[in-house]
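Section 5.1 Outputs to date
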Amino acid sequence: MTLFDRYLGKRMIGAIFRILITVVLLYIAIDFLSQRGQDFRNYGVPVGVALQYYLTFIPTILFEYQAAALAVLIAGLMVLGKAAQDSEITAILAGGVSLYRIICAPVLVALVMAVGAFWVQETWGVSATSRARQIEDEYFSRMVHDANRAPISWANLDETWTCHVLKFNRTALTGQYVYLHAIEDDVVQEIRANRIYWDENVNAWILEDGRWARFGEDWDLQVDRITQARAPFNEAPDQLFALEQPADTKSAQTLADDLEHAANLGIPVDRYWVDYHAKFARPALSFVMIFLAIPFAIRIRRGGVAVGFGLSIAIGLAYLLLFLLGMGLGYMEALPPVIAAWLANACFFALGMVLLYRTPT
């Protein structure tokens, strides 16, 4: 690396670090003054829990609200804009060094930022977000869980059984009017029961008040009365309801495993794959943003921090609108999941490359 590479790299890293701290503290201050401060007082939340809540909420600010990518964009505009304003870039270009060589250090910093963001999101981010949601449910949630029982069905339980429950309470994990059936090579089985519930003491689903019918190869019928018995499948509630847990509380691998398992149970999962691909698209935005920062920074040499910050906000809002549009179309299954999640990144990367190619040197 040249002296100028180290110079730009250090300035980029320092600027990103300062901007991240500023954005996180600004968000926390706004959230506390506009909403959570009153909640803390109304619900008597201990100071330690309040501090823990904001600490665990940082990954959401960085990745879901794209503060990390915004920091790269603002830092690129400020650092490269300052270098262009002070004619440092002009002097190096006059010495025969190409623009593409000059921007190597900022691009490398952005790449490291994107990889680091993904790693943090998959490790600390998952556990911190899970804890933040626990605190919200315990102290802030005003939702009243719906106790009304709705039908539910699962297929391929233990790769054999299909289960239908006419009325099921997801909060209590109990259901009424249960029908199970399994078709195998030499036997057809059918279970009808009035009740099913999850017993934590034995880690099993329990059937009550029903009958278990078996039809053999010659259609010989055997019927056993059920007073209370274990259900013939071993999937726990965490597996059956895995998709109801927010995607940001799981790693990409865990989410993929849950989606594959849910698909085997006959649950439609196409829309959930959008969240899986978004786990990669969000951190990658930090790398995309540097290619927008470079051409704008070199073109806009005056205005300093104010212009750079204003331009960053405009680009950030445009990206969020396009990203939410793509995600929405993905949830509606109007776009394939991978395209829905990466649409905004692809458009902004293409725009950045065009502007970079047309940047006067």
